Amino acid sequence: MSSVPVAVVTGSNKGIGFAIVRALCKQFPGDVYLTARDPGRGQEAVAKLQEEGLRALFHQLDIDDLQSIRALRDFLKEKYGGLNVLVNNAGIAFKVRDTTPFAIQAEVTLKTNFFGTRNVCTELLPLMKPYGKVVNVSSMVSSRALRDCSQELQKKFRSDTITEEELVELMTKFVEDTKKSVHEKEGWPNTAYGVSKIGVTVLSRIQARMLNEKRKGDHILLNACCPGWVRTDMAGPKATKSPDEGAETPVYLALLPSDADGPHGQFLSDKIVHTW
Length: 276
Ligand code: NAP
Prior knowledge:
Layout: E1 6-9, H1 15-27, E2 31-36, H2 39-51, E3 57-60, H3 66-80, E4 83-88, H4 102-124, E5 128-137, H5 140-147, H6 151-158, H7 164-179, H8 192-214, E6 221-226, H9 243-246, H10 248-254, E7 267-269, E8 272-274
Parallel strand pairs: 1-2, 1-4, 2-3, 4-5, 5-6, 6-7
Antiparallel strand pairs: 7-8
């Protein structure tokens, strides 16, 4: 078994994830795994970094596929005996002009951004080594969507006692409410992406609390963040930040020094903690 530290970035064949891998290859003292659902796209991305003189390793990972997540889990367990850095970056967003019915957009978006990310966490968080770092890439859109929720929903999402099961129930209810076209009446905002990222931010707050309760002595730091508005296939060419600039806050959180006792359980943008 290798004692080399290991970092994994989900959805990193392009965009912000790719830039996070590039930065980690330069700064992380260990093996860095670029992962992609499509091995061809993943290997191409690794080769691109190689041309820059950087060495990333590749492992397949489709966060929508539990078998794929478990294969990565078993690989990490066997080869490294755990994991030091996990960046949950993979995500999707329908374009504004997309005419896919809202209920389908809600189901598909939540499936990857919330349920997929949660499944990765369920399988990989138990592998996190002491002083490990977990970064969940959310979005400022989650804060905006939270403000557009009913007072009752806002209270639940800001609660310091909400459980993961309760959060899953709420995310499932959102998808069901969109199918019945009652989501606005039920207090939800009209954004599937926004609700999926509320899920990611609240999940991060819950997971950080669980780490405090169950693994306090392990000093693992877990946070959610927004990369900013970044020029990628998702956000388009008018966005203000380059992918490398978008990677800065996630990488800062992934490389917090071992004597740091925070941030933990926070939502950050531009390396600044924001009130949820
Ligand atoms: P992007 O260029 O579209 O890249 C998304 C990445 O996620 C791609 O590598 C994609 O792989 C991967 N992915 C999607 N579904 C996946 C799945 N089921 N399993 C594994 N990988 C999957 O988007 P981006 O702008 O870099 O976004 C990265 C993260 O930042 C997302 O979580 C996004 O919500 C968040 N974010 C972005 C912005 C922005 O302005 N760009 C702002 C706030 C937050 P494929 O190539 O196979 O599709």
